[in-house]
Amino acid sequence: MAQTDARLRVRKEGGITFVEFVDRNILDEANIQQIGEEIASLIDAETSPKLLISFANVDHLSSAALGTLITIHNKMKAKKGQLRLANIDPQIYEVFVITKLNKLFEIHDTMDQAMGSFR
Amino acid sequence: MSRRGSQRADEREVRLVNDPKAVRQAQEELLEAVSRHHYPEAAAFAIRLAFEEAVCNALRHGHRDIPEEPIDLKWSVGPGRVTITVEDQGPGFKPGDIPDPTSPERIELPHGRGLMLMRAYMTDVRYNNRGNRVVMIYEKKD
């Protein structure tokens, strides 16, 4: 079942929660805190969460957004959940590489590859 | 703001309050000037990111104790160079005191990457002695 939020598009299928951003500028400073809270709620709702975040509509990323992603990662780790990121534009991926966060997050080129990686 | 001829720089000075709409508008004006001077997309990405980091640092950290005070933003976009100056009224800081956010003990902390990204994406980033003013330069690559 898909539900449309002002900032996130969320659907659940096969035990995996899929999250997509609906606005290209969604990860700017003004929105990122609320996005973090919304994703945290999704994690809280599951016992062993499996979360796949698509960056298909993202063309900008700040350190604040990275911070929110790290908080999400830490929350998932505490719940022994699984987090995957996918569809990251090369320019955005470079931000992860510069900050070495490409080593912290499990990042896949496509959604199919990410889905296949869940245990 | 001067707009006559593509060889003349676009310049702007503004006092920026801690308001998301004002910050976004200031960012859009800068990026419009970058576009008018035909900088490639990668440059616009870099400039946008560095602008956001510097402004957020000034408002969030520099003005932590004076949140109602505006910061001073000045930028110049010319055919080969973009210069952005952000100055806050706070006590300043020592950039050298910022620890490496990529270290194993800090990689899972949510803060501390702004300065690193500014330096990674801009040609030059310099703070004054007090640490409350940063000048960032982006040189267009051939």
Question: How does this model look, in words?
Answer:
The complex is a heterodimer of chains A (119) and B (142). Chain A is α/β, with parallel strands linked by helices and 119 residues long. Chain A has 4 helices and 6 strands. Chain A has one domain: 2-Layer Sandwich (Transcription Regulator spoIIAA). Chain B has 142 residues and is an alpha+beta fold. Chain B has a single domain, classed as 2-Layer Sandwich (Heat Shock Protein 90), CATH 3.30.565. Chain B is 33% helix and 23% strand. In chain B, helix 1 runs antiparallel to helix 2 and helix 2 runs antiparallel to helix 3. The longest helix of chain B has 22 residues. The radius of gyration of chain B is 15 Å and the shape is globular. The N terminus of chain B is likely disordered.
Q: Give the CATH topology of chain A.
A: Transcription Regulator spoIIAA
Biggest beta-sheet profile of chain B: 5 strands, antiparallel
In CATH terms, the superfamily of chain B is Histidine kinase-like ATPase, C-terminal domain
Shape of chain B: globular
Give the amount of beta strand of chain A, in percent.
15-25%
How many beta strands in the DSSP annotation of chain A? 6
Major beta sheet, strand line-up of chain A: 1-2-3-4-5-6
Structural class of chain B: alpha+beta
Total tally of structural domains of chain A: 1
User: What is the CATH class name of chain B?
Assistant: Alpha Beta
Rg of chain B from C-alpha positions? 15 Å
Helical/strand content category of chain A = alpha/beta
Largest sheet of chain A: 6 strands, mixed
